[in-house]
Design a protein that fits this description.
Length: 307
């Protein structure tokens, strides 16, 4: 084991003892967590727990086809062992999409409960798609799995469009430096850093398209933020339950060349952008209303306390 791995294991162990101590001190009836090594602590404390599944890669290791910080396909990885135990011993596992539900049953023989991600209600408004220049938005942490460097490359290939990137550098400081270096001479690229949730909506309002370059995710909250603002989504890989095409709310590009073509072609078709944006708005109103999502969690928690 390398010195770096020794330090990482020791840090996780120290964090685990601190968190376990806090769990015992708070003494709640039910804990909600995202699994992994830390997720097993609720088991040690003998508390009921709900595992909220995040990325598809946690239950489908085939998605991890290269070295990515924060993810491993090894069965001996500490977090993977923790995730396996968390899944098998959770009192309930909630999933973000139907694909996760199917994979959970197929790979772990565990029945997941589909509770979609919530988005707060926002009054309807008239969206304009005629900004000059149009604004293409990217939102997420600057982590390897998000592949933000591809967004910079997209900005370089489409110089007559404005590209805005929102996200913190905590995921990978080295990647942040790479983004800053590769974009320093791009007049059409703007890195905005971390924007508080209560202020980020204005950027979705002004944007024309949201682009996602991630290798994989679960169900990106940025999709919901885009659709509540009538914004179509162009995604490189992420397309939970094929909703982009099923509901005609955006485009699933599958490779970078198509991503570039999809962005350029969509920007030239304001009618299609308007149609996709409206479809997105109708979709989130029907499936992701925060009132109903909160009710789902309340009912789940009550069902666990009754046993």
């Amino acid at each position: 084991m390398s010195e770096t791995n020794d330090f990482s294991f020791l840090k996780k162990l120290i964090d685990a003892f601190k968190l376990l101590s806090l769990i015992m001190k708070v003494d709640s009836e039910i804990y909600i967590h995202n699994g992994g090594f830390i997720g097993t602590l609720t088991l040690l404390a003998r508390k009921k727990n709900i595992l909220m599944m995040a990325s598809d890669a946690f239950i489908n290791k085939a998605l991890i086809n290269k070295k990515i910080r924060g993810f491993s396909s090894s069965k001996l990885d500490l977090d993977n062992i923790g995730m396996f135990l968390s899944i098998k011993m959770a009192d309930s596992v909630t999933v973000q999409n139907k694909t996760q539900k199917n994979l959970l049953e197929q790979n772990f023989q565990v029945e997941g409960k589909l509770i979609r991600n919530p988005i707060p209600h926002k009054n309807r408004f008239k969206k304009t798609y005629k900004q000059n220049p149009p604004i293409v938005l990217w939102v997420g942490s600057l982590a390897e799995v998000k592949q933000p460097q591809l967004f910079v490359e997209l900005a370089r290939d489409i110089p007559d469009v404005k590209f805005q990137m929102i996200g913190g550098k905590s995921g990978s400081p080295e990647l942040y430096q790479e983004i800053m270096y590769s974009s320093h001479n791009l007049d059409n690229f703007e890195y905005l850093g971390v924007i508080p949730y209560e202020k980020i909506d204005q950027y979705f309002c002004k944007a024309t398209i949201l682009v996602n370059t991630s290798l994989f995710e679960g169900f990106p909250n940025s999709f919901l933020q885009a659709w509540i603002n009538y914004l179509p989504v162009v995604s490189l890989n992420v397309n939970p339950d094929n909703i982009l095409s099923t509901y005609s709310m955006g485009l699933h590009s599958k490779n970078f060349r198509h991503l570039k073509d999809d962005v350029k072609n969509l920007l030239c078709n304001s009618e299609l952008m308007m149609e996709m944006g409206l479809n997105g708005r109708m979709y989130v109103e029907e499936h992701h209303d925060i009132k109903f999502i909160v009710s789902d969690y309340v009912n789940l928690i009550y069902s666990l306390t009754e046993h």
